[in-house]
UniProtKB/TrEMBL annotation, chain B:
Keywords: ATP-binding, Nucleotide-binding, Transport. It comes from the Bacteria. One of its GO terms (molecular function) is ABC-type transporter activity. GO terms for cellular component: membrane. It comes from Candidatus Shapirobacteria bacterium CG06_land_8_20_14_3_00_40_12. PANTHER family: TEICHOIC ACIDS EXPORT ATP-BINDING PROTEIN TAGH. Belongs to the ABC transporter superfamily. This is Sugar ABC transporter ATP-binding protein. InterPro entries: AAA+_ATPase, ABC_transporter-like_ATP-bd, ABC_transpr_TagH-like, Bact_Polysacc_Export_ATP-bd, P-loop_NTPase.
Amino acid sequence: MMMTEKEIKARYKMAVFGFLWIFLNPLVQMLVLGFIFQFFIPIKTANYFEFLFPGLLAWNFFSYTVTKNTPMYINERALIQKAKFPRETIVLSVVLSNLFHFLMALVVFVLFEWLINSKIHWWHWCLLPGIAFWLAILTSGLSLLFSSLNVKWRDINFGVQALMPLWFYATPVIYSLDLLPSWLARWIYLNPLTAIIGILRWAIMGTEVPWFSLLISGISTIVIFETGVMVFRKESPFFDDWV
Amino acid sequence: MKQNNLAVKLVNISKIYQLHHEKPTLVENIFRKNSREKFVAIDNINLEIEKGEKVGIIGPNGSGKTTLLKLISGIATPNQGKVQTWGKLVSLIDLSAGFHPELTGIENVYQNAMLLGMNRKETGNKLKEIADFADIGGFFDAPMYTYSDGMKLRLGFSVAIAAEPDVLILDEGVAVGDENFQKKSSDKIEEFFRQKKTIIVVSHWLEYIKRNCKRIIWMSEGKILEEGGLSLTKKYEDEFSK
């Protein structure tokens, strides 16, 4: 927990706007992406900006966290070599501090929706913490997996950097699935983020989400998390040998 | 039970490192099938250290002293054998590890104390004691990047001793800071020596070991070559002054 506090404080210590940045960052990103895809590539989705924002928030949380965490044990080698402490704290503190930012921005967006959207479902909002938790589990699992492997094989980091842009386009953040031909959409459902972002939009804006995608995503999240924890458990006692 | 008297117990421990001459990568791992070079850092060591013992570990560079300390403190894990320790163990190896330059001294104290196994409340109670001992004045609530190296070390040392270890592990360079602080820190360590704390020292500074330790362990090539009382340092000196 204290490591999380350190992450948050260290990140915003010097920033004049402080917490404003948490919201401003995805907002600017949304405007840019929204502008490009609205005018240059015709995507037929009502309220495109509104559609874009929750997906971007979730994607940013996921990709920032996993990308930052992958080389984390190498970057923190001074600590690994000198002190004994539960190794998972390093990775989990990054997950938690980014989760905090994600939730902050989400709350602001939900309030915004409450003001402009009249047909929202209050009880859907009760599920938001659960959805955030689901996303955090997936992110933690991958973070633990990649960061542990990167200690042993340093090219994992490059692999993750190459993977993330591909993953972005394989996730329905900037497009919606009904725009794709059905053979392609079927593959996109295998991506655990598809259902998470789907149900996030459903919870905030009441868009539909296919139930079977939730099942696929739920199972793959558990598998990824279990794998991550297993690899971490096996490798973490020997981090000092490799860093 | 005899074990209640023990602070550290090592049973048949070995530590083998893989030598890699470049950064290890997955690609290389798949395409190159030749067996890796191995380096045996610790070769089947058995050791028991009782509570309150002052142990000095001597031996030439590369004899496995630091690896042994890492295994005892739990930073590294042996490939074979079992390490058991009783009581709170603190190693004064690198005092400023874990400090974050953007955070203030106080925030870093909490952070570092947590790594040493203290909770928030304990640290809060000790905060004044730590500040007094480190004696860095108004810098205590300034960001770490404004500190000099000496100030960082002083603060690191102050946190480490505030953790009230049962087993204290000292690596080379026991003395930190300026003349004044060196005096203060060695007084504090002497105080630990006088209390019934277990202390394990690794040093090439034989005078220090002679003055403070009762039991000497002489390591060579990952093994315990000889074990004994203070007379062993004499033999060790003779061996290397030939």
